[in-house]
Structures are given as structure tokens and as C-alpha cells.
Amino acid sequence: MRLSSQSPIPWFDGFLGVAYRYYDLRMNLVPLFEDRQEATNLWHDTIYWWLDPSIKIRFVESGDKYWFIMGSDSQKPDSNMSFFKVLAKSENYERFKKGHGGEAYLRLGVYSKKSLDGVKKDALCNCGHAAEDHDEGDGDACLYNVCNCKKFSSFQVNLLRRKKTITDIGYLAEDDVKDDPLVWNCMYVNKGIKD
Ligand SMILES: [Zn+2]
Ligand SMILES: [Zn+2]
Fold first, then answer.
1. What spacing in Å lies between the alpha carbon of 125 and ligand 2's midpoint?
2. CA of 112 relative to ligand 1 center, distance in Å
3. Which of 86, 134, 138, 175 is deepest in the core (most CB within 10 A)?
């Protein structure tokens, strides 16, 4: 397969991952960034110019991992980019897969880690127990006998306000990637699959 003579759309994987949140009566698909300014710039330079009906989201599952692939036609092709990331399957991923019903909002999110003194008592630690069950006097260790969590850790996702509506969401088996030009290009460029 040859790319067309016009310059190909570059692939971008410099984001942290993807969150799936039920919010505003619809599933939200949220590429995550560490830095708010970076997310804001990327929205203004690239995603803002996407035509909603042309936004494609593709998932290719491979064992306990999956490829997240996202691309779109743009009103400003010069600064267009396509996104991909290989991620571990998660409960939220499975929930999105079952629950999106063919539509979702695309927003960007800012991911921040939280320590024990920065959260409310009922905030959940990554160990599954609440902040108030962690002992501030003992290195933030979890107080549950059965739990070997030594330090409270949690994260928060702040969603940026702007959103796009996605209506083209597809799941492909690894054997079928050649049938989808966006996915095939992603695999060709980023995974080195040969014809
Ligand atoms: Zn904990
Ligand atoms: Zn715990």
C-alpha cells in the first residue's frame, strides 16, 4: 500500500491514555493529558477543525490490549493529526464498548494525581478503599487488614468543556484491519505491517 502523493496526516500518540466517562447523558471518550495547556492547544489547532460526522473512532483488540485509533477530515488539513495509542483493556473500556449505543462525546481531559491531604474523606484510593480508611500518621497506609496498600493514591480527571459528537465508532478484529483505511494506515505506519 502506498500513501497518496499529498503529505500524509501524521500520527500522534503523545497523550497518556483514554478515559471513558458517563457524563451529560452520554458516554464521553476522553483522551487524557498531563498538561492543561497542551490539551487546550491541541484542541484549538486540530480537533476544533474536525467535521463531526467525519470523526472516526476505531478499536482493534489484541489479547488483553487494544489499539485506540482516531482520525477525521479537517477544515484545516495542514494542522490535522490522527491519534493512536495501545492500551490495556479496562472495566471502563468494556463499559464503553457495551454502553455507547453508537454515539459519544469526544472531549479532552487533564489527568492529575491526588495525595491524601488533597481529597475528601470518601475519595477512593486505587486500592479500592476510601481516603478516611488510610492513616495519615502511618505514611498514608490503608487500615484494612486484608489490604497491603502502603500509600493513598488516587487520580482525578478534569474534562475540558468543548466537545464534539462522535457517531462513527467501530471495532475490528486484527484480521480485518486491511478493510479500514484509517486503521490500516495506522498499523502500516506504527506497527510495520507489510503488504
Ligand atoms: Zn489505599
Ligand atoms: Zn486499601
1. 7
2. 17
3. 134
